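Dear U.,

For the methods section draft, I wanted the exact inputs and outputs in one place so we can describe them consistently. I've listed the two proteins in the order they'll appear in the manuscript figures. Please don't edit the token lines directly; just add comments below if something needs changing.

First protein:
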Amino acid sequence: MEQLLKILLVHNRYGVYSGEEAAVDRLEALLSRHGHEVRRYERDSAALGSWPSVARAFFSSLYSPRARRDIVRLLDGFRPDIVHVHNLYPLISPAILPLIKERETPLVMTVHNFRLICPTGLFYSHGEVCERCDGGREYWCALRNCTGSRGKSLAYALRNAWARMQGSYFRHIDRFICLTAFQRQRLDDGSGRFVVLRNSADDVEDADAGEIRLQGGGDYVGFVGRLTAEKGVEILAGVCRHLPHIPFVFAGAYDDRATRLFDGLENVTLLGHQPAGTLPAFYRRARLMVLPSQCYEGSPLALMEAMWQARPVVCSAVGGLAEIVDDGITGLLARADDVEDFSQAIERLWCDPALCRRLGEAARKKARRDYGDQAHYQGLMRIYADARQRTSSG
């Protein structure tokens, strides 16, 4: 009989709901369904607004007395069998990690991005993939003003440098969970602590509905996510101009800059942020999905959710995305910065419903095999067991 665990999840929520938040929410639900006792320690960056609060957040990203007090109370009161960390910036800080290890509690971290070695976490700056900060050169973030704010870029560089010099992560984490083999290769320190476990994106509806989802062709090319530079908003705008005869519908937050990029395009509908519960129907109404990411993505939930709904994806061939989308089998890959390449791939699928159906069926089969909740849970339990073994053996 499987041992039930007491698990503490630690996460600093972002200012807006993101795929990382969704992954943490899904993890808690998954562990609870299997009978584990789960608690969460969270802080929320949405409260940050004024300059004084932002300044306090910078210092708390280096060392947060409040978070340390809170964690001590949880460790002593809840006595978790394992602590599973996600994002710690800016209100929790890596300063909690030594406290956890002092109590010989196994410590696992899911690395949703590349923030261990890149201050912004994206390996993306000024419209291009950028790895200048790797190898202890965080000062590039400040010199290049990677965030677009001098103060913010300097703060990001300083907090990353501080964590590296303190050995905050690499001295205390027992297992690092990477979302792709590409991510593991870029982060691995040779210690054997980095393992790959993809996010789960299990189907939330009747599995038998898969067959009827493939009928009808679909009404538009869809996109789910923030309409930002690193997500490829400029590529999307260029593609929409290239293909005025194809309708595009985008579900995700956008700002005035994104609105200007799509001005005058009658084939584009911007829905804005959509509640998670509405997305399955959004995928099913699409003929195909597009993901023109310019940065090294982790394991985008939107991509796997589309696969669950038997929708092929035209996706950037960048970072670990090519591990998820098999070119010509479950979708099509395109050069990340090439509007023409994306346009040709999208038009090819749009004009060939039979090909869409075939790739969509293969995508759903892969999702069932690799991205289901059960496969994720079994992999997670092995990682927890490894972390506990590592802790008990000293």
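Second protein (the one for the lower panel):
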Amino acid sequence: MLWSNDNRDKRINPCTTKSVVKSAWILALTICLFLTSLNTVQSEEPKAGTVSILFENDIFYNADRHYTNGVSISWVSSPRSTPEWLSNAAHHIPWFPKEGDMRAIYSFGQNMYTPQDITLRNPPPDSRSYVGWLYGTIGISSETGKQLDQVAITLGIVGPSSLAEQTQKTVHRITGSNKPRGWDTQLNDEPGIILFYQRSWRGFVAHTISRFQLDITPQVGATLGNIFTYGNTGLMMRVGKNLPLDYGPPRIQPGIIGSSFFVPQGSFGWYLFAGAEGRIVARNIFLDGNTFRSSRSVTREVFVGDLQCGIVLTWPAFRISYTHVLRTREFRHQHDKDRFGAVSVSIPF
């Protein structure tokens, strides 16, 4: 991250950052070794479904600002265990495909946003607001082997009831990081809703080059609600060996969502990936402020883009991924682009 001269003395402790990141990787490797010892599952669709744990944070790049943290846990059912009522409801959506494997989607998570300088009790009015987002999602997907359609509804709460203040202060106290001092200026409580739809075409271009598999997956979607309203389009390229049936690693909205489920194609597979997404943003409560009450706000950028790259490793018993994300400026007075990392672990049962 590039810091302005005015903020060089306000970086988070690099020693603390390195120790936290090192501990996270040690924990991830320990989980991987444990799961590898249980690797007796066949390369087929799990009987019940897949659980995914996702952690996004800018600490991987020695930063603590803007979109600073996101965590979620999700459960995606197997086609054979998808509730009938949810499948029937999806059939009433005119554009939703009737064929394909239906999977139910359930998730719960928390996002956290802060100004660039968290040591100020009263951040400048042109800086991003403090705000948290606590939410739950229910949805369904239809997957044909070549195309994935996802539709979901998310309900949650923005403001003090999201518990983001308590979460950040607790983590910073444990890790010895700077104390965030401006949470008294955060957005007010507001219930939130997001309606989400996305279509992805896996293997739109597919080749085998010198024993390596390559495919390109374009996608298009839209999100509507008082939290986010935007249209998006993008694509992802994968190259590797024994590419699993998936649509890239999972991500937290907004971003190249990918898929929480995967079906391995062999005892071990891997791929490198790179992707880009562009969004036309009509509403972002984390920048625009509360919908019906006076609150802090900044001037939102209409066009926002993400570039991402990373690696995915798959075994029959689990999938692990790391994603590096570069996000363009989201509001007018933002000094630099944002960078953050995303780690996910998916386990079928």
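Candidate sentences for the figure legend, describing the second protein: The first strand starts at residue 49 and ends at 57. Helices lie at 14-37, 84-90, 164-175, 285-288.

Thanks,
Y.
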